[in-house]
Amino acid sequence: APDISVANVQSHLAQLNTIASQNGGNRRAGSAGYTASVAYVKGKLQAAGYTVSEQTCTSCTYRGNNLIADWPGGPSDQTVMFGAHLDGVAAGPGINDNGSGSATLLENALALAQRNPTMTRHVRFAWWNGEEQGLQGSKYYVGQLTAAQRSAIKAYYNFDMVASTNAGYFINNVDSAASAPMKEYWDSLNLAPEENVEGQGRSDDYSFQQGGIPTSGYATGASDTKSSAQAAKWGGTAGRSYDPCYHQSCDTTSNINATALDRSADGVAHTVWKTSVGTTAPAD
Ligand code: PHE
Ligand code: CA
Ligand code: ZN
Ligand code: ZN
Ligand code: ZN
Hints:
single chain; alpha/beta; Aminopeptidase; globular; binds phenylalanine; binds calcium ion; binds zinc ion
């Protein structure tokens, strides 16, 4: 799998931070900052050759669009999805929550397009509206799928807060078959990832889980406190939150752990390749 450039991911984060600054300081669903965030991601994807669509979430508290990007290739009845919520809270620019997941997926999508490998599965990326109001955008998306479309989605991988300054290394459903490639990558870095206990039912993977689709994903932690055992194996500070700026105005580009961001971005690439790319792909 390619080594994703963390500098490129950080440049997307800088753009999202600027978008917030120029639109009242946030990227909340229904705001100008959210619409501008969708436009930024969409423009990059279209230029790279994705088939991109916007889906208006009519059941969302703040009406706005989910952004769906399909990489042409691979059997559509064997689809693997990667998603992140693109909206933030009103308090600040939302750069770890969830510019980090959004930018990680955008750069992975661009890297896949640039490599253009033979696809054994169809890959679809999604950026959700209205997560902060209760997983609304992803719930709407899953709800509008036909039974055939739902059963075509073999796995959904979620990325919500993947660069917390006092990072933990958490995987949703860490012992599931779907999580195996995600776990394999972080295991290769000797991170000894743990179950994402804090995130159970709290992000968009829950919408897919409720739809009967296998789910996994990475997270580096929100407001919960890092234990001394976790600080011993991962570094950082015991007795402090994983992200001390969670849902606050200080969730800016300064609130990003570049090491955790890189480990997350590279693990996504590993998972895209492991699940969906043929043997003619560049070797790992
Ligand atoms: N879904 C939460 C949010 O966006 C983030 C979160 C994820 C919190 C996982 C805890 C655990 O605010
Ligand atoms: Ca990298
Ligand atoms: Zn949040
Ligand atoms: Zn979030
Ligand atoms: Zn790999």
